[in-house]
TrEMBL record:
Ranges annotated as spanning the membrane: none
GO MF, any single term: nucleic acid binding
Residue spans of biased composition, Basic and acidic residues class: 318-339
The UniProt record lists the keyword Iron: no
Ranges where the record places region Disordered: 317-339
Sorted UniProt keywords: Exonuclease, Hydrolase, Nuclease
Organism per entry: Desmophyllum pertusum
Xref: SMART domains: EXOIII (SM00479)
Domain of life: Eukaryota
PANTHER family xref list: DNA POLYMERASE III SUBUNIT EPSILON, PROTEIN NEN2
Annotated ranges, domain Exonuclease: 15-223
Full protein name: Exonuclease domain-containing protein
Nuclease among keywords: yes
Length: 339
């Protein structure tokens, strides 16, 4: 079983899920999902679900990621494709209002890229668009604005959260369909890594860890549950529609300041996820500092670059307006006075 050495916390509602994925790499445009792990919480009942996914890519393209998650291409070759997994995933998530994850824009982006590759499947795509995504990275920055880094492990260490895999590790996932209950069991032995001791980079165990982190962060900030979190700290929610809009603009090369200006207010709200800015407000930073930070880590995502470009537009406009409204010190007031 998957155990977490963290004190139990009060239940949270409404129905929500913690989701994590493993992939063949970090580039959403070419890499594919190979494992999806979900922990659904409904009325304090915690139910895990997991699927391995055949990425349908050459073995050589999976070699680098294999060193991280140890999921063998040989194992994945016999697994279902994402097209086959997607209906089961959506069935498991059909009553879920929120999905939470750490830097979940990455998980969301990979999932949407996979769904976009599917022909039809509009009902499932609509379901995924309806679910709100909560980023624990944002909540982590709010909770600890002065940390040296915002890796997920750093936050887990703050609360002494540990997830371990026993040698006999296995878990069962199940969900009910209209006429029957489907049930699957998974075990580490399937991966050929019997001696694993650490659970990091297993999608389900990472989801359990993230759930423990969520509960601790809610407690630290005095939020009763996820609904209370969203009500009092709406910045925790990812504006996924903004990402879709900017992806289209990037493809159509409509990235001028004039094109981005209507999105400036929405972009400012997203800004707080930037870990290199240590949780400061936009007004505390110069345009140059923001732009300098764009080229580190996950901010290389062109959509995120466009968001920060849009986010500073109002700041620049306000600065120019203040400059225009202030008297010109180089002009002698007596000389400018009309007779």
């Amino acid at each position: 079983m998957c155990s977490i050495t963290v004190e139990p916390n009060q239940s949270v509602s409404p129905v929500y899920a913690i989701l994590d994925i493993e992939t063949t790499g970090m580039e959403r445009k070419k890499d594919r999902i190979i494992q999806i792990g979900v922990v659904r919480v409904d009325n304090n009942v915690v139910t895990p679900w997991m699927a391995y996914v055949n990425p349908c890519t050459p073995r050589g393209e999976q070699r680098g990621a294999f060193r991280v998650h140890k999921i063998s291409p040989d194992v994945l070759q016999g697994k279902p494709t994402f097209a086959e997994v997607a209906p089961k995933l959506c069935k498991f998530l059909e009553n879920v209002e929120y999905i939470a994850g750490y830097n979940c824009i990455s998980d969301w982006s990979f999932l949407m890229a996979e769904f976009d590759k599917l022909q039809g499947n509009e009902e499932n795509k609509a379901l995924m668009k309806k679910i709100k995504w909560i980023d624990l990275l944002r909540l982590g920055i709010k909770s600890f604005p002065g940390l040296g880094n915002y890796r997920s492990q750093t936050l887990l260490d703050k609360f002494s959260i540990r997830t371990k895999k026993a040698q006999s590790f296995h878990y069962q996932s199940s969900f009910k369909t209209e006429d029957q209950q489907e049930s699957e069991e998974f075990t580490l032995f399937e991966l050929g890594e019997i001696n694993w001791e650490q659970a990091h980079h297993d999608a389900v165990c990472d989801s359990f860890s993230a759930h423990a982190l969520l509960k601790k962060l809610l407690e630290k900030n005095g939020y009763a549950d996820i609904a209370d979190l969203v009500s009092n700290f709406p910045q925790c929610c990812i504006d996924t529609e903004l990402f879709r809009i900017l992806e289209v603009k990037w493809k159509e090369r409509k990235t001028s300041n004039e094109e981005l200006q209507p999105l400036a207010a929405r972009a400012e709200k997203f800004y707080g996820t930037m870990p290199s800015l240590r949780g400061k407000t936009l007004e505390e930073l110069s345009k140059e500092k923001i732009e300098a930070a764009l080229f580190s880590g996950f901010e290389r995502d062109e959509r995120v670059c466009l968001i920060y470009r849009a986010a500073v537009l109002n700041k620049v406009a306000e600065s120019q307006k203040r400059k225009a409204d202030s008297p010109d010190e180089s002009t002698n007031p007596k000389e400018s006075k009309t007779e």
